[in-house]
Amino acid sequence: MSLLILEDLKKHFGAQEVLRGASLMVDPGQKVGIVGRNGGGKSTLFRMITGEEHPDWGKVTLRKGARLSAVDQRPVFGPGVTVRAHVEGGLDAARAASDALARVGEAMGTADGEELEQLMREQDRLMGELETLGGWDLEHKVEKVLSGIGLAERLWEREADTLSGGEKNRVALARALVGGGDLVLLDEPTNHLDLEGIEWLEKYLHELQSAVLVVSHDRRLLNNSVERILELEFGRLNSYPGNYAKYIQLKEERYQDDLRAYEQQQEFLRKEESFIKKHMGSQRTAEAKGRQKKLSHVERLERPHHDVRRPRIKAPEAARGGEKVMGLEGLSGGYDGKPLFADADLRIGRGQRIGIVGPNGAGKSTLLKIMADRLEPLAGSVLRGHGESVAYYDQNTSHLRDDGTPLSEVFRRYPQMTDLEIRSHLAQFLFRGGEVEKSVGSLSGGERARLSLALLVLTKPTWLAMDEPTNHLDLAGRTALEEMLGEFQGALVCISHDREFLDGLTTHTWEVADGTVTEYEGNYSSWRAQKDGAAAAAAQQRQQAEAERKRAEAARQEAERKRSQAPPKGKGRKKNPWKLEKLEARIMELEGKLEELNAALADEAVYKDAERLMDTQFQIAETERELEEANGEWESFA
């Protein structure tokens, strides 16, 4: 039985028809991604499923008894409620099922016959419910989810209402994930997560027993976490099996098939209508009337939609600068005298493509602002190359005046442009007609992002500094932006959590984490592979170090056993007791040195430095050889 059924939903907001016959069926456990343009009705669809809004026409049916879990886009927290307490509230259903299961188990101890069979059926039902809710390990689930989405442990006992906006949204997401339920609704869940949080969410959704409906513009997440794509286009839902990559392929194939069928029907209709017109009133009138009757019963196909509306972003003309765009020497950045990172030594060359990654709050935006001359460093120098000039994209679009309009914002910066030139330019970013006169304060996040890009491409920089440029852009907008940046001839430095975006554009990666900035060759996937490889190597080195420690400990214990069995000093040691004591001291010294060397193998500074790693391993081998010789000499002497 289907978990959720939407039947022919229709919804108007004034004269705008948002949904015009949307239908959908979701089965238990299905993972479904929903894509579509900003403002196309995806959030409206979610509000109808949760019951916050009602369709003008059609029906929403959720299976009786099914539990729904959704993320509140504007979370509200009670006074004094901590982060942990709010998230634990999502476990109410799981705790109730767990308590009920305990009561059933207790009752089964004294029941028999029909009563026992009924209790056993109830036990099976409750166990299935707990499985769906993920409630077998309630004690650790909250901490697992909070850690996974990247909410620092120091915040868990804070009042939730004192957090920043992004942190509040992560708390709301954590509660929904902890709650589980039969159906989980997620509307842009990656918006406030860093890269590690997004990767963790992918794995969590893959393992989740619940059905999931997720609205997202993150292509990598839609490729890795869902088995079906729903496209909301022109008010209708079109279903495609498979992940996002498969959807792109099938969408094009479907369009071509539908277009072929439409054109064939149009050709058939033209021929039939021509025949009818030619022969009506002639000797073949009866045949013409017969064809006319048949034609009136033909179901006319609509011309298939192929929505090509997207910003047409022309790359800004890159100014010719020097070979070196910028150098950073001993750079430290932060606020109120407290550094987020320190001693950064980096260089940007002409045409270089750099992606900046790292946890939220590590200092990525701070670094980019210092480089773009929007913020003073705490220490160190920024050495700018000959002719260096930057165009800076601010993810908060704080440079836009809320009391302005798209038209006035362009004119304010470029007064030499005519009204027609400005309108033509804005039309490329989907601001047409009266939209160019809309108040900036009333624009959506996606519209503000498009306006910022429209201003940015009118500059002539040597390099672009872009802080989360894909935030608020739908998939069509992201594709247009990627094409523009791919054509830009200058250098590019961008912060992004969109892994597809980083993979397609960058050739170097700067990781800002733990107070340092580290450079890696390659794009995001290359950086991730290096990090995973380093983590695996570190784990292997720790295992080796532990094995060596155990071996050394076993050797020490064996030597100690043999020493305890040696003749008393008055007999066997009578000739040279000082030599035996000297050997024992040497053995203890070598054992201590070996323990220190093995511990060093797990040090990141060692295993990341090939030369130091090789030297440490050589010292371990030498120390083991000396220890073996010393133990052998001691045994022989004793």
- Whole-number tally of structural domains: 5
Low-confidence stretches: 570-575
Counting H and I runs of at least 4 residues, what is the number of helices? 20
As a percent range, the share of strand residues is: 15-25%
Bulk shape: globular
* CATH topology type of the largest domain: Rossmann fold
Largest sheet: 6 strands, mixed
> In terms of structural class, how would the helical and strand content be classed?
alpha/beta
Could you tell me the number of beta strands? 18
Task: State the CATH class of the largest domain.
Answer: Alpha Beta
Helix content: 40-55%
Can you tell me the CATH architecture of the largest domain?
3-Layer(aba) Sandwich
| Cα-atom radius of gyration | 34 Å
Structure description:
This protein is α/β, with parallel strands linked by helices and 638 residues long. The protein is built from 20 helices and 18 strands. The chain is globular.
Question: Strands, helices and their partners?
Answer:
Layout: E1 4-13, E2 16-26, E3 31-35, H1 42-50, E4 57-62, E5 68-70, H2 83-88, H3 92-108, H4 113-133, H5 138-148, H6 165-179, E6 183-187, H7 195-207, E7 211-215, H8 219-225, E8 228-233, E9 236-241, H9 244-279, H10 285-296, E10 324-335, E11 338-349, E12 353-357, H11 364-371, E13 379-384, E14 390-393, H12 406-413, H13 419-427, H14 445-456, E15 463-467, H15 475-487, E16 491-495, H16 499-505, E17 508-513, E18 516-521, H17 524-565, H18 577-600, H19 604-607, H20 610-637
Parallel strand pairs: 3-7, 3-8, 5-6, 6-7, 12-16, 12-17, 14-15, 15-16
Antiparallel strand pairs: 1-2, 1-4, 8-9, 10-11, 10-13, 17-18
Helix pairs in contact: 3-4, 5-6, 9-10, 12-13, 17-18, 18-20
